Backbone:
């Protein structure tokens, strides 16, 4: 698989098979991914991997919080609002995903059950948490983002699906306690990893991309 194929075949997996992913495979993925660039080779990332019983305890804790409507508060603050163009794309994505699942706008019970899959980590057997020192700036968040993309692309080499998601880091106190993450580290993002259930309807969906002519501006060519 070349880079272009990996980019085009990657999608956000929202339903995983229960099949485990062995430690050696995860180590190979992380070793390759940490070739990602960073400011002056600072390599600001600290990586914590949850699986097995540790992940199940996290999953149950998340599910309990979700059902009790415990407010979500990630270490890296989520946006308070989106500009209109971004909000429109968010709403269009939600409409298409709910439509694919056959869920109507006024079906609150079905929408709640649908959202619960997030709290269950989409059934993933592995979650990779990327952290960095709290004293660092958004420039290092940029480095973490490059590492995250590298992890997801390298996972493709092993036929593994992935999804980065806010929900995975929305209850940092649970993550910190279970994985013994020091207070001086911010939990930036979680990446669910595993074998994709390719027959699940949510994994047949592909979100659209803006036309490159709308995105890129050239001058001098």
Residues:
């Amino acid at each position: 698989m070349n880079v272009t194929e990996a980019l085009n075949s990657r999608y956000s997996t929202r339903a995983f098979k229960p099949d485990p992913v062995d430690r050696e495979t995860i180590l190979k993925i992380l070793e390759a991914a940490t070739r990602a660039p960073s400011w002056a080779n600072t390599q600001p990332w600290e990586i914590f991997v949850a699986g097995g019983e540790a992940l199940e305890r996290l999953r149950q804790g998340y599910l309990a919080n979700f059902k009790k409507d415990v407010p979500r508060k990630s270490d890296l603050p989520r946006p308070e609002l989106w500009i209109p163009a971004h909000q429109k794309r968010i709403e269009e994505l939600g409409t298409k995903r709910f439509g694919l699942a056959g869920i109507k706008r006024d079906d609150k019970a079905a929408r709640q059950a649908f959202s619960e899959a997030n709290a269950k980590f989409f059934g993933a057997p592995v979650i990779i948490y990327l952290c960095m020192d709290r004293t660092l700036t958004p420039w290092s968040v940029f480095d973490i983002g490059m590492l995250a993309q590298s992890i997801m692309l390298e996972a493709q080499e092993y036929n593994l699906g992935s999804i980065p998601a806010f929900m995975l880091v929305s209850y940092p106190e649970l993550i910190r306690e279970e994985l013994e993450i020091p207070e001086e580290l911010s939990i930036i993002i979680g990446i669910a990893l595993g074998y994709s259930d390719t027959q699940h309807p949510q994994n047949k969906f592909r979100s659209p991309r803006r036309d490159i002519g709308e995105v890129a501006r050239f001058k001098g060519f």
